[in-house]
Amino acid sequence: MFKFAAAAALAAALFGCASEPPRNQPRASAAVKPNPPSQSAHIRPDLRPFACVGGYRAGAVSGDYAGYPALTQFIEQMVQKHGFDREYLNGLFSQAKRKQWTLDYLAKSDQGLKGKPSKGGWTRYRSQFLDARHIDGGVAFWRTHQAALQRASQQYGVPAEYILGIMAVETTFGGFVGNHRVIDALTTLGFDYQRRGEFFRSELESFLLMARSEGIDPGKPVGSFAGAMGLGQFMPSSFLQWAVDFNGDGRRDLWNPEDAIGSVANYFAQHGWRNGQPVVSRTRGSYSGIDSLEPGIDHEYPLGTLAQAGIEPAGHCGCDYPLRLVLLRHQSNDEYLLGHPNFYVITRYNHSTHYAMAVHELAQAIKSGYQRLAGSPANLGEN
Ligand SMILES: [Ca+2]
Q1: Is residue 51 within 8 Å of residue 9, measured between CB atoms?
Q2: Spacing of C-alpha 376 from chain mean position
Q3: Contact in structure between 309 and 291 (CB atoms under 8 Å)
Q4: How far, in whole angstroms, is CA 371 from its chain's centroid?
Q5: Which of 20, 76, 87, 170 is catalytic?
Q6: Cβ atoms of 254 and 231 closer than 8 Å
Q7: Looking at the record, which segments are called Disordered (predicted)?
Q8: Any idea where the domains of the chain sit in the sequence?
Q9: What is the pLDDT of residues 212-229, one digit of tens each?
Q10: What per-residue string of b and e applies to 329-348 under the rule 16 or more CB within 10 Å gives b?
């Protein structure tokens, strides 16, 4: 939905950004073959494929980020480590904006991190996602992108409905992919958000590498206030590690539905998705020793330990591996589920029990809706 890649490639051909070739030649992406240095000036942009897209150029950083020693150091690192042009980065960061709204918002939410989940917490979280907009939207998206979802499911061993569950929670299938410029988001969080500045500076480094390898003007992409991009809201480091070109056009484009489908499936596969295994199981028992166990994603228990605490799977489990205890606080009661390894895989996308449960429930609801429309599960083409 965000077609800047082709325009950026054109821009690369129109703007030269440095009068001198770089001392450290950046590595070209697999899709771009650099010309030898002896070629004429006419084709010079190919010497440094897309390294200067946007035509930014300045002797020093001006604007919101003028006089930030940490940014000067970061730019120097990008020059020395990755062969970026210093004046290009000075120009790029001269037009980066400090997003005070983001800093205020995070200061508030950091305060709210403390404390255990409150009564009804799951009920409230669930109601944001388990609705017709997300479920019907998933069914429609499945029908539109049936071939790509089937191919991804077969290639990566991840059911289509879980790819859709992620896209439902993240962006409602591209309905809202964020409107913050990624360069503003990551510069603000990298240099003005002390608690996680190091993390976001690393993401900024990955973002600049991504922009260069894909031929994108780094001033153009928009995403979440934290710099997450596209239908699956990949952070730049996730892009570099797990994004795939799934429509075969030679580019990895997180805003393209097919590339996003393949990338989410690859993310799950690389994080250990076990095809055919369940995500959660219901429980029964006396729960007499429940207080001796810690719910959440950081602790896992063998079935024997759970049995000693008065908890067992409600049906046949067939699980010979440790399980996590998933606490869901409904409005009127607390519910305990058993989280299988696939539950943990979903939390690698977002480290939250509620997040993984919403993805799981949406996956099931979207699958039911799709099967009703398709008429028969045999038509789904799942593996
Ligand atoms: Ca592609």
Answers
A1: no
A2: 33
A3: no
A4: 28
A5: 170
A6: yes
A7: 24-44
A8: 5-94
A9: 999 999 999 999 999 999
A10: beeeeeebbbbbbbbbbbbe
Asked about 312 being catalytic, the answer comes back as: no
Strands (E), 94-186: 180-181
Measured in Å, residue 195 CA sits from the centre of ligand 1 at: 35
Which two three-digit tokens encode residue 163? 């790819």
Provide the token pair at 11: 């821009």
CA 69 from chain centre, in angstroms, equals 30
Beta strands 334-339 and 280-284 are antiparallel
Provide the pairing of β-strand 222-223 with 180-181.
Answer: antiparallel
Rounded to the nearest angstrom, the distance between the alpha carbon of 244 and the centre of ligand 1 is 7
E-strand stretches of the chain: 180-181, 222-223, 280-284, 312-313, 324-329, 334-339
Distance 303 CA to ligand 1 centre (A): 44
User: Any idea which residue has 């166990």 for tokens?
Assistant: 293
243, pLDDT greater than 90: yes
pLDDT(298) > 50: yes
**Chain-centre distance of CA 272, in angstroms?**
17
- Other Cβ atoms less than 10 A from the Cβ of 32: the count is 17
Residue 375 has pLDDT above 90, yes or no: no
Question: Counting Cβ atoms within 10 Å, is residue 217 exposed (0-12), middle (13-18) or buried (19+)?
Answer: buried
Radius of gyration of the chain (CA): 24
Query: Which two three-digit tokens encode residue 328?
Result: 């869901």
Residues 6+ apart with CB under 8 A from 271: 345, 348
201 — alpha (psi -120 to 50), left (phi > 0) or beta? alpha
The pLDDT confidence band at residue 114, using thresholds 50, 70 and 90, is low
Measure the CA–CA gap between 52 and 81, rounded to whole angstroms: 17
**What's the 6 CA to ligand 1 centre distance in angstroms?**
12
For residue 78 the two structure tokens come to 């990008």
CA 248 to ligand 1 centroid distance, Å: 5
The residue type found at 11 is: A
How far away, in angstroms, is 257 Cα from ligand 1 center?
9
* Angle (nearest 5°) at CA 293 between 287 and 296: 110
3 state SS of 228: coil
**Of residues 315 and 12, which shows the higher confidence score?**
315
Amino acid at the residue 143: R
Q: Which residue has the tokens 């309905």?
A: 175
Q: What is the pLDDT of residue 12?
A: 35
